[in-house]
Amino acid sequence: SAVISQKPSRDICQRGTSLTIQCQVDSQVTMMFWYRQQPGQSLTLIATANQGSEATYESGFVIDKFPISRPNLTFSTLTVSNMSPEDSSIYLCSVEGSGGYTFGSGTRLTVV
Amino acid sequence: DQQVKQNSPSLSVQEGRISILNCDYTNSMFDYFLWYKKYPAEGPTFLISISSIKDKNEDGRFTVFLNKSAKHLSLHIVPSQPGDSAVYFCAAGAGTASKLTFGTGTRLQVTL
What we know:
- Chain A has strands spanning about 5, 10-15, 20-25, 30-35, 45-50, 55, 70, 75-80, 90-95, 100-105, 105-110.
- Chain A is an all-beta fold.
- In chain A, a hairpin with a 5-residue loop joins strand 5 and strand 6 (about 55).
- By secondary structure, chain B is mainly β.
- Helices cover about 0% and strands about 55% of the residues of chain B.
- Chain B contains no helices and eleven strands.
- In chain B, the strands form two sheets. In chain B, strands 2, 4, 5, 9, 10 and 11 form a six-stranded mixed β-sheet that branches.
- In chain B, a hairpin with a 4-residue loop joins strand 7 and strand 8.
- The model of chain B has no long low-confidence stretch (mean pLDDT about 90).
- The interface between A and B is medium-sized, with 26 and 21 residues.
């Protein structure tokens, strides 16, 4: 199955700033998924990123707040813009592999 | 609207006994179900999956049972080991390469 390198693993950010999270996959994949896990809650899909097209966002998530780039088949970034304490979460990228989905190790974001 | 529900937030089982984790879903379009294990500070790790054409899938100590009429699936771990202590998420999808909807997780504690 694919191996995903996600960074940063954690960060503490000031409100009003932005953070870009990167995911690098060791193989070419068509779709990459970005999830958020807020404290005590389940994983929630933010958007699906296809190479060469605009990301598809789930209800409650918008491109201005979570811009996504997908410049090639092995790489994607998610930016959390104009952060507030409510954005404090774990953010994960994911790709589909044989038998299931593989996840990055996650980015634990704390906004102060 | 929580389409995938794990009603037990925690479960404690003695080492060597069977662990049974339950999951219910409401969306009849789901045709693919997965279980993930998550350790603290790590991303979810894929465990086992089942498609709606089956009612059982087994992989070593892990067996997933699907009851489509009841919209219920369960994960059996036998024998349970201390290293199985983690949070377990069930997830469901509709069609291949589809977004996953996750349950809120069940924290399993395997005691000596």
